[in-house]
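Recap from last week: sequence in, structure out.
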Amino acid sequence: MRTTLTTEPRSRKVGRRALAMLAGVRDSTLKFYSEQGLLPFVQAEPGLARRYDVDRAIARLREIEDLRALGLSIEQVKARLQ
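Predicted structure tokens:
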């Protein structure tokens, strides 16, 4: 039996600390953004730690950092990203 390979890339999911290392930001920064609803997470099963899609989370972090660098408050960033 032949299996079909998909050409769609598989997303990597990691915990907050691993994402902080990959993104080059502090863990507390990710925690804050997550608590503010700015950084969406993926949770595979109830009761497990929050997991983040690496590519999507890093792209969102860059958006947040760019907006903050322009002088936007957290509330303004929230409004802009929704």
